[in-house]
Amino acid sequence: MTFKFLYDFSILTQAIDKAITGSMSPFWAMITEMTIIGVLILAFYAVVGLYLVYAERKVCAFMQNRVGPNRVGPWGFFQTIADLIKLLMKELIPIKAADKLLFNIAPFIVIIAGFMAIAAVPFAKGLHAVDFNIGVFYVMAVSSIGVIGILLAGWSSNNKYSLIGAMRSGAQIVSYELSVGMSLITIVILAGSMQLSTIVEGQHDLWFIFKGHVPAIIAFIVFLIAGTAETNRGPFDLAEAESELTAGFHVEYSGIKFAFFFLAEYMNMFIVASIAATVFLGGWMPFHIPGLEGFNHVMDYIPPFLWYFVKTAFVIFLMMWFKWTFPRLRIDQLLTLEWKYLLPINLFNILLMALMVLMGWYF
Amino acid sequence: MTSNQIMFAIFSGIIVLFSILTVTTKRILRAAVYLLFVLISTAGLYFMLNYQFLAAVQITLYAGGIVVLIIFSILLTSHISEKFEATEMKKSIFSAIAAISGAILTILTILQYPFVASQAPAKEVNMDLIGKSLLSYNVDGYVLPFEVISILLLAAMIAAIVIAKKQNAK
Q1: How many CB atoms neighbour CB A10 within 10 A?
Q2: What is the rounded distance in angstroms from the CA atom of residue B17 to the CA atom of residue B9?
Q3: Taking the domain B1-87, which CATH number applies?
Q4: What b/e string do you get for B41-50 counting C-beta neighbours within 10 Å, with b at 16 or more?
Q5: Closest chain A C-alpha to B64 CA, distance in angstroms
Q6: What letter would DSSP give residue A252?
Q7: Which residues of chain B does A133 touch, with a Cβ-Cβ cutoff of 8 Å?
Q8: pTM of the full predicted structure?
Q9: What residue spans define the domains of chain B?
Q10: What is the per-residue pLDDT across A81-95, written as a single tens digit (0 to 9) for each?
């Protein structure tokens, strides 16, 4: 079958690797491969970011009983590309009283954090750029750098609205990071590994959300809430609350620098959704039920990357649904939710999961 | 030069350059950002050693934790127009002598150690092993220091809450 690589990308990647290492010295082969992977991930980053913006506008429109973008291309499909071209041609307004160095570095820190995190996501079987044995921990570590960019952007703009936005955003991300980490640890206990490829392989008979039933479902819900908060999205978007802070930390940015923040926000949503899909919903693993061999075989015919994208899209849709149906929280409500509810629930949930794994009370 | 050496040169160059910039810049938030670059490059060195766990710990704790705290306190206390005054000549000379003599002492000690180059491929550090030795009370176990540090941190956290609490709140 010629399309066999759709089911196992390692065939394709190994062929490319062989071709490259065969034609040049190991040093240049490594450089070439790293460049190819970097460019691919960068292109993926841009395309997914653009189409998430489109998806958000469409979902928002349907929830508000509108049509949404419908002029550029069929169903407005090329609207966000037109928007991007417009943003690229906008003037970059220099801020006289700003700290110029930090003002210019800040968008890159946010982008780099997302870029490093997305490299660790397993997209399909054999399509996985960085596979450390501490995968989950690595993703959490690199995504924690992003908040520095937001704080720097807010402070260096020399604007009180952006400073308040950055402070809110910092307090929010630092506190919700804890819940994200702990809900992932709950599943790490069940999986017995932090390596993302092992976690996906471990779900070959049943996804972890079904395997770990009650504690896994609690962890999934906590992860969704905390993940939405970590990406600064509504109902937790008080960092850029339009009605009170104009646009929060990125109010002074224009043109492509603003586009960087905008893109990073959507990519962070994509990363959170990918991690949720990988850790709880089996990643690229097809839906299998132990005992039903025929059913499992039928499911195997759907290519792994399709499974991955459908699951990620599902989680993204959930997050958009939150944004357009819940009202924005106040800062005190936000911190109460994290420290008084999510954190204790999480700590108890970890104990529950440990007990279940110890007693073998999972499927 | 092998690719490993090139990477090492890049990382150590960044570390040296930004360490100097951290202590010489006149703007406090820039110093924090240069420190961030130093810490992240150190994590890069750990990645080169195939010790991903330590690298991730370095990024989470130092870059994502401590630098964020530093930046946060700067955001709360200082204004963008503030700049450090130039330090006195005497002070800078004395601190330079102290730093350089410390560096010479360390380098001399390191050079005395006979490093044997090994051709064996770098091993990946096993996470299971780290977890087990952290919680083991046998030889090579670290459960006592682990627990002692946990109690210390707990005490520090409670102390911080007590200090921050309003006096008349009952």
Answers
A1: 14
A2: 12
A3: 1.20.120.1200
A4: bbbbbbbeee
A5: 5
A6: T
A7: 52, 124-127
A8: 0.86
A9: 1-87, 126-170
A10: 888 888 888 888 777
